[in-house]
Design goal:
heterotrimer, A alpha+beta (about 425), B mainly alpha (about 280), C mainly alpha (about 270), B: about 280 residues, mainly alpha, MetI-like fold, two-stranded antiparallel sheet, 2 strands, about 75% helix, disordered C terminus, C: mainly alpha, 13 helices
């Protein structure tokens, strides 16, 4: 019994100190700025810049996978929590945040600091991406566009050129398809990855997702044909593509288990990293066949419920995305600043730049619908059912359209 | 009395969230649209009339039954094997228990590296043996099997540990009597020992059923509900409702339904297994 | 009943093989954590490669997982101590109540466990926010204790039920007050059961992810949350998360090895009878 009490006493002591610890913290420490963000190399770089932006101001950065960050943000904002102060948002999620009144419009701060940080240098496209209902909501940080990755060495040996149409793409994928190397990659994991890839098909071959009144139109004949093409092409896709997100697709290309496919420009540099890739120097990039591929932008927003000084927060963000800092990250993303986009040195240094610049010109942005990610649940589900043959394409898309419409009607559309 | 500290904690900490969830389920609480409107049992009505609900329920029942059945039979056999062993038991027990120690999220990641197509360990091994592997995560049938296997991998150890302990409590005299009567190893197991530890079996089956129904992390990481909807379970649907569609009211209603279904299932199981016994339960 | 050698040795080998297969995912993850990404996902799978310690280094030194380990330990230890204590008390109380009532109460408590975890996240967050307890230890600990109670109570109650009523009666006749009956008579008899319950509670507390994600902040972040932050896009992170995952497992493994003796005895003696 004695030893038991001894151990229990220690453990109890631990517990007591554990409970007391937080109250022992010095109460006079200035509250740090809290930031939550998605995680990939470009964002890690920016987070570091934020941490060092203003001497004396502590910035606490938490980076995590996209859906976790979104979960956390949803939970925090829906209860009007005063943290986080800064939140990462892409061009789709910021719409949700803005519509719900969770983030603060930045027009006044933008105007105030325009000269100081040369904010006009951000391309008009990028500024438009982060605008909604006439206001600007985020400081643009990274820009991204999907490129057509392909194995130049394999193409050269077979005497082929990168495809200009979907039919060519399909036939090329078929010809390169073998048990050990899939013809193409496909990333159809719900919701984010699947929406990206299918957007390309719907926008290039179909009439788009919605009409001007936000009625879903992707189940019209052209939309059905588009998804049917997707279904045909995925016959030559890597195994497990229905649960593959961007990382698995990247690994497939890097490990020589796929010959081509659509992926984000931010993944381009990793193809030439000998620590990660077996195909160093063998991948080249082209404008996706028939254009209309997704391009997107990420940015950082300021919470509407923050207790920190918004001006301070804005300055942190502006410093992190200054010309100098973005230049340092030029290989990790497609720059958002015109000056960098036109920089000859950078274009020469990063092999994928020409393709990226050309692709941005023909790309299509995300629909400016705050509920896009939400109805994406129905849409990607229907697309998966169509592509895997669980349902025929038309009925699957019809069901998704019906659910989307019902959802949007519940949100006040179509009055 | 003795129940006070526990009851107070439970009341203070758990009842509020549960109560709040029940309260929410009666509302059309849509985070995305900013709606908060009382609709009584509207959410429940909507769910019960949806194909998605019944389909995911069906899949969940299928996966849970397969998983628990596999865990139980495998667990019982291994536990019996350990019981009959007279050396190395403790080490084996410890080693076998490892998968249960791992955080579910981490376990899911480990399993993904095994099952993923082409460069996963399993596929890689099969390919080097010259067999072209099936798509473990991309084929509907295989995906379901993989999910069941994932659950079994992590929780069979739990079964083994508890059943092993149970087997050890069976009265020696009964065993000896049976041995004298010339009972073989299997007769011993099924005719003598299993009936003796029936309450324990009930306990583990109930616990596993409860947990398997709420199984989320592994499925989310491995198949994300796919391919198509082959592995979309109730919990995944709840997650979609709460965090993608932002319809928290409906999600809470689904949570309540899950609770009722699981409670019902367990109550039925208890009634059936205890029909003849008054039992210490 | 001893088995014949002829049967026992193959049985042992069979069980070893089973264990080996069972541990493959873990072993593979350990290997992965020492590989460069280019080797980690190679086909055919590479058993021979140039190892690198950079990821383990990155996890423990650069990313300072020590900090999170301390958080995890503090939170788990406190949870287990408090939860097992009050759970044992409640279980004792229940075990001495009439069968019908206690069964009803038990089922009620247990049904709290049947509610999907993910839906508890938002209410917990709201509650903790209102009390100003986010990013503090008490919030997490209290939540974990509450979640832990149903299982703890059920398990301990079954241990208590094995204690024959005569022992309590004898103690009472000897003049022990109700607390003394509990502390001096009942608890020592179920001590092995306490260890078992403690282990399962520890596992649950240590591995809890969703509530930790919601209730902890930078200062109190636990290991599972820290790990999940790397389960994302770039494959550099995958080998990093392999290293982190392996690291996270170690403390529990060590703990289990130390407790081995108590555990098996506890289960063997403790006759877990529903």
């Amino acid at each position: 019994m004695r030893t038991k009490i001894g151990r229990r006493v220690i453990l109890n002591g631990l517990a007591a100190s554990g409970l007391a610890a937080p109250f022992i913290h010095p109460a006079n420490a200035a509250p740090a700025v809290q930031m939550i963000s998605h995680r990939f190399p470009a964002l890690e770089y920016l987070a570091e810049k934020m941490r060092n932006a203003i001497p004396g101001v502590e910035v606490n950065t938490q980076l995590m996978p996209f859906d976790k960050a979104l979960e956390l943000a949803t939970i925090a904002f829906s209860s009007k929590s005063s943290t986080p102060d800064i939140i990462y948002a892409n061009d789709s999620t910021f719409l949700t945040f803005a519509k719900n009144g969770w983030i603060r419009p930045l027009d006044d701060l933008w105007e105030k600091h325009r000269q100081e940080f040369d904010l006009d240098d951000f391309t008009p496209t990028v500024r438009h991406e982060h605008s909604y209902r006439g206001h600007i909501w985020s400081v643009p940080s990274t820009s991204n566009v999907m490129l057509f990755f392909y194995r130049k060495d394999l193409f050269d040996k077979a005497g082929k050129q990168p495809p200009k149409t979907f039919v060519e793409y399909r036939d090329l994928a078929k010809s390169f398809n073998s048990p050990l190397r899939a013809g193409t990659i496909s990333c159809l994991r719900p919701v984010d990855a699947a929406l990206n890839e299918s957007s390309w098909y719907i926008n290039a071959l179909g009439d788009g997702w919605f009409d001007e009144q936000w009625r879903p139109i992707f189940n019209d004949p052209k939309g059905v044909a588009a998804i049917d093409m997707l279904k045909q092409i995925t016959r030559y896709a890597q195994q497990g593509f229905t649960s593959a997100a961007n990382d698995e697709c990247m690994i497939a290309l890097q490990q020589d288990t796929a010959a081509m496919g659509l992926q984000w420009a931010t993944r381009a540099l990793a193809m030439d990293d000998p620590n990660k890739s077996r195909v160093v120097g063998k991948i080249d990039w082209a404008v996706p066949p028939q254009g209309h591929e997704p391009f997107g932008g990420d940015g950082y927003c300021i919470s509407a419920f923050t207790k920190q000084d918004p001006d301070l927060l804005f300055r942190i963000l502006a410093i992190a995305t200054s010309k100098q800092n973005l230049r340092g990250a030029a290989g990790l993303m497609v720059p958002t600043r015109t000056s960098l986009l036109q920089d000859k040195q950078l274009a020469a240094k990063y092999r994928f730049y020409p393709a990226a610049l050309a692709s941005i010109a023909v790309g299509t942005g995300t629909p400016q619908l705050p509920e896009f990610y939400s109805v994406g649940d129905f849409i990607t589900r229907g697309i998966q059912q169509a592509v895997t043959g669980e349902m025929e394409v038309k009925p699957a898309l019809d069901a998704a359209t019906a659910q989307t419409q019902a959802f949007l009607r519940g949100h006040g559309y179509y009055r | 009395m003795f129940l006070i500290p526990s009851a107070t904690t439970l009341a203070a900490v758990l009842l509020y969230p549960l109560g709040y969830a029940i309260y929410l389920s009666l509302f059309n609480y849509d985070l995305g649209a900013g709606i908060e409107r009382f609709i009584g049992l509207g959410n429940y009505g909507a769910l019960l009339s949806e194909a998605r609900f019944w389909d995911s329920l069906q899949r969940t029942v299928g996966i849970v039954s397969a998983a628990v059945a596999l865990e139980f039979s495998l667990g019982l056999l291994v536990a019996y094997g350990l019981y009959r062993l007279s050396f190395g038991v403790r080490t084996l027990n410890l080693l076998m228990f490892m998968p249960n120690i791992i955080t579910p999220v981490v376990a899911a990641l480990f399993l993904r590296w095994i099952f993923i197509g082409r460069w996963g360990l399993l596929s890689g091994i099969l390919i080097s043996l010259g067999i072209f592997p099936p798509d473990f995560l991309g084929d509907p049938g295989w995906a379901r099997a993989t999910v069941v296997l994932a659950d079994a991998w992590q929780f069979t150890p739990f079964m083994i540990l508890v059943l092993y302990a149970g087997l050890n409590t069976v009265d020696q005299s009964q065993i000896e009597a049976a041995a004298i009567d010339g009972a073989g190893a299997w007769t011993l197991l099924f005719r003598i020992m299993v009936p003796a530890i029936r309450p324990l079996i009930l306990f583990v089956l109930a616990i596993r059923m409860m947990d398997a129904f709420r199984f989320f992390d592994q499925i989310y990481v491995l198949t994300a509900g796919g391919p198509g909807t082959a592995t979309e379970t109730i919990t995944l649907y709840t997650y979609s409702l709460a965090f993608r569609l932002l319809q928290v009211g409906k999600a809470s209603a689904l949570g309540m339904l899950t609770l009722l279904i699981v409670a019902g299932a367990i109550a039925t199981m208890i009634a059936v297994l205890y029909r003849r016994e008054k039992g210490s339960f | 009943m001893r088995l014949r050698r002829r049967v026992e040795v193959p049985l042992f080998l069979l069980l070893c093989a089973f264990t080996a297969v069972n541990l493959t995912p873990v072993g593979w993850a350990v290997l992965t954590s020492f590989k460069h990404p280019v080797d980690a996902f190679a086909v055919p799978p590479k058993l021979i490669f140039t190892p690198t310690f950079e990821f383990h280094y990155e996890v423990w030194v650069e990313k300072a997982f020590w900090h999170y380990l301390i958080n995890s330990v503090i939170i788990s230890a406190s949870t287990v101590v408090v939860s097992v204590s009050i759970g044992t008390m409640a279980a004792y109380g229940l075990s001495r109540l009439a069968s019908r009532t206690s069964r009803g109460v038990l089922f009620g408590i247990l049904s709290m466990r049947m509610f999907p975890h993910i839906l508890l996240a938002i209410p917990f967050f709201v509650l903790a926010k209102w009390l100003g307890l986010i990013n503090t230890y008490p919030a997490m600990i209290l939540a974990l204790i509450a979640i832990n109670q149903p299982f703890t109570i059920w398990l301990m109650r079954s241990f208590f039920l094995d204690v024959p009523a005569e022992i309590y009666e004898a103690a009472e006749i000897d003049g022990c007050g109700s607390w003394q009956v509990f502390a001096c008579v009942a608890v020592p008899l179920v001590r092995p059961g306490v260890w078992v319950t403690a282990l399962f509670s520890l596992l649950l507390a240590y591995n809890e992810f969703l509530l930790a994600l919601v209730l902890t902040g930078p200062a109190t972040k636990t290991l599972p949350v820290a790990l999940a932050e790397y389960g994302a896009e770039d494959i550099n992170y995958w080998t990093l998360s392999a290293a982190a995952a392996v690291g996270i497992m170690l403390p529990i493994l060590v703990f289990m090895m130390l407790l081995q003796r108590h555990l098996v005895r506890g289960l063997a003696l403790g006759a877990v009878k529903g």
